[in-house]
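Hi R.,

As promised, here are both runs. First protein below:
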Amino acid sequence: MTRSAREVAFDVLRAVDESEAYANLLLPRELAVAGLSPQDAALATELTYGTLRRQGTYDAVIAQAASRAVDAIDPPVRDALRLGTHQLLATRVPAHAAVNETVRHVRQTAGAPASGFANAVLRRVSERTADEWIALLEGAARSDDERLAARWSHPVWVIRAFRRALAAENRADELDELLAADNAAPSVTMTALPGLAEVPPGAEATGYSPIGFRLGGGEPGPMIAASGGRIRVQDEGSQLAALALTRVVPVRTGERWLDLCAAPGGKTAVLAAEALAGGATLEANELSAARVGLVRDSVRGVPLEIPVSHEDGRTRAGRGRYDRILLDAPCTGLGALRRRPEARWRKRPADVPALTELQHGLLDAALDAVAPGGVVAYVTCSPHLAETRGVVAEVLHRRDGTVEELDARAVVGGISMRPMDLAAAADGGGRAQLWPHRHGTDAMSITLLRRS
C-alpha cells in the first residue's frame, strides 16, 4: 500500500515516541520504502523534523486547546495532533487540509470518538496564528526561561546550560540566536577525503573546513556511491575536529594514531586519509558491537589497513603508546539538536553526572596511552560546561604539570579557510567551541592536550 508524506511522517513520529527510534536513521529508510516523489519526500522530511523540533511548544498549545495535559492523551492521537498542529502553525498547508487529513488518520488508527476529539482540538488550534499562540504561552510563563522554552521549544534545563556556556565566552546575549538556529533545518555538508577525493566542479566550498563542500542541489547518495566512500556527508564542525588533531603539528612518518570512540566513523575516515598521506598508522575502537560495522564501512575508501576493535575505551587505550589519540567522547549530544531534534526531549539533567564520570575515565585512559609529547583531542558534540570545561579542568588539576593544554582556537583558526569567530573562554583555556548560530556547524567542543 502506498503511503502519503503525512503518513510517513506520522509513522516515524510514532516510532520515535514509542520505540525511541532515531528520526535521522529511520526516516531515510521509510522514504525509500514508500517510494515518494522528491517533492513528497521533502514534505515528509519537513513534517517529521519540524514537528520534533517544535514539540515542546506544540504540546503546550495542544494542552491549552484540549484543556488537558498532553500526557493524558492517547499516544497515537497525541502524535497525530502534534503533526496536525505543525501543519497549522508552521507550514503553508491549508488549514482545512491539515485538519481533515489529521482527523481522517486518527479515525483510521484510533476510532471515531478519538477523531471527534482531534477535530475539536485542531479547530481550536486553528483559531490563532503561531505568533498569537506563542504570545499566549509566554504570558503564562513563570520565568524568563519558561518564556524562552515556550518560544523556542527547548527544555528549560537545556536553555540554562546553553546560557552558561555562552556566558563563559561573555556571549550570553546570543542565546536567542542559538535557540533559533537549533530550530532551523541544517544544510547538508559533504567532505572530500583529503588526498583521495576532490571537491566536485560546481559545488560550493564550505567557509571553514578545507575539505568540505555543499551541493548546489540534488541528492548526495549517487555521488557518495560513485566515490567509493571517499566523499561522504559530514558536518563541517566534525571535519574541523578531526583536522585539529591531524594538523596540530606536522606528521612524522611512523606515528601511531588511535580513534578511541570511533562510531559512526566520519572522523575516523578523515583521520585515515590524513594518516595515509603522512605515513602514519591508525587504529580504531568502538564499544558498541552494533556500530563497529559503521566504522569499518566508513574507512573502506581509504587504502590503509585500519584494525577496528570492539572494547571499552577505558581499557582498550592502554595497549600501547600512541602519538595522537582522538577521543570523541560519548556525551549528551546537545550540540546536534538541529540534526537529532528528538534528543532535546530525551535527555535529562540526571544524565550528565554519569556521562561526565565516563568522560573522565576515557580521557584519563587516553592520556595514559599517549606517548610523551603526544596529543589527545578531547571532543564532544555538546557545549555543556560540565562535559567540556569541567572534565578538562578536573583532569588537568589531577595531572598537575604533566599535561599541557594547547591553544585549540589557534589550531582550528589556522586550518580554517577564512577567519573564525572563536571566542576566548573567560577561564583563559584554549578550548575551541563551535556554534550553530555563529558558524553554521554543530556545537562541537575541541580541546587539545599534550602529554609533557
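And here is the second one, sequence first, then its C-alpha cells:
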Amino acid sequence: MAGKFKQWWSFDPEAEASSADNPHAPLRDDQRRETFPLLTLAFGWGFLVTGLIVGGALGKGLPFADIVTATFLGNSVNFVIGALVAYVGYKTACNSGLLYRQVFGTLGAAGPVILVALLTIGWQGIIVGAFGFAWTQSFDTASFYAVAIFAGLLFTMTTYFGVKGLEAVSIPATLVLVAVGIYAGWMNVSAAGGWEAFLSQSEASAGEAPLTMVQAVNLVIGSWIVGAIVMPEYSRFAKKAWVAIAIPFIVLILSQWFLQIVGAMGGIVSGTHDFTTYMLAQGAVIGGIGVIAMSLALWTTGDANLYLPAVQTASVFKRPQRVMTVLCGIAGTIIGLGIYEQFLFWIDLLATIAPPLIGPLLAEFYLGGRKRFDAEALTHAPVINPLAFIAYAVGVIAALNAPENTASALVGLIASVLAYWMLSMGVRSLGKS
C-alpha cells in the first residue's frame, strides 16, 4: 500500500510530459485539442451560476432594455481582456503557472500561483455549495451537507482525468443547458402575461434596488474578470488563433450573457435568479428537469474551476497533476460546506486582488517583447522578478482606491500593466546609461 501511494505521489517528468494535459511544459503540437470539444468545454465553463445571480440583481435595478445594454458592455470588456490573455496562452502553449514563472520568476511564481489557487479553490467551494442548494433548497441541513460532499467528490473524480474528463462532461451537457435556459426565459415571459406585460413589469421592478448604467456595467465586469485572466489554462490547447479567441467569446459573450438575461427575467417575474426555485413550483417533472439542468451546469463549471488550481500548482510545485487535483478537490469540498452564502463577498474579493496578477504578463508579452515566451526561456527565467511584485501591489492599491463609478477590477489591471511597463522601461534605461 505504501509503495502504491509513493508511486502515485511521486513526480515522473516523462509521464507528465506524455499526458494529455502536460502541466509542466509548453504543449507539443500533438497535445493540442480538437476544436469542437474545446469550444463545448468553454460553453460549459461559462455556464456558471454567477450569471444568474448578476442577472437577478440587475433585474431589480434596471429596465430590461438597459439590462441588455449593460450586460453586453460589461461582457465585452471582459472579452477583450480574456482574448488578450487567451492569445498569450495559445501562442506560448503555456498554462498560467508556466507564464508566471517567466514573469514573476521560477521561485517568485509560487506567490501568484498560491494566491490564485486559494481564490479558485474558494470559488470551487461555492460551486459545491450551489450544487447542494439546488437539490435541497437549504444551506445547513444534513441533506445539504451530504449532497455537497457528493458534488465535491464528483467534480474531483471527473477532473482527475484532466481535460479529457472535462470534455466528456461538457459535450452532452451543453444542449440540455441551452434548452432549459430558453424554457426558463419563456416561462417568465408567459407568467408575466406576454412580452409587453413583461416589459411593463420590468419597469416597475427596476425601482426595487436602482442601479446606474455605470454601476450595472461594473457589476458585470467584476463578476467574470477573474475568469478572463485564467484563459491560458484552456486556450493553450487551441490549434488555431481563432479558436483561442473563440473560447473567451463563448464563455463571456454567449454563456454569461445568456445566463444574465435568464437570471434577470427570473428576478423580474419570479422574484429569484435561480431557475430551479421557480421551476420546482411548476411540479415534479418540470422541477426535476430544472434541477438536473442546474446540476449539469454546476458539474461542468465545478470541473473547469477545479482544473485551474490543479494545473497551476502542479506546474510550479513539481507534483503530478492527479495529486494536486485530489488535494484541491478535497479542500474545495470542505470549504463548500460553509462558503456558498458568502458568494457576493467572494466575487468582490476576487475582482479586487486577482486581475492585477496578469498585468505584468500582458505588459511583458505585448509591450516588452515576445521573445521571452518560449520553452527555452523557462530555463533562463530569473529566480524572483521584484518588478512584477511591485506592479501587482500598485494594481491592488489602485483597485482598492478606485473611484465609486469605475470598475475596480479594471482599474487594478490597467494600473498593474502600466506600472510594470514603466518600471521595466526605467530599469532598461538605467542599464543603458
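A quick note on the second one: DSSP finds 21 helices and no strands in the chain. Let me know what you think.

Best,
J.
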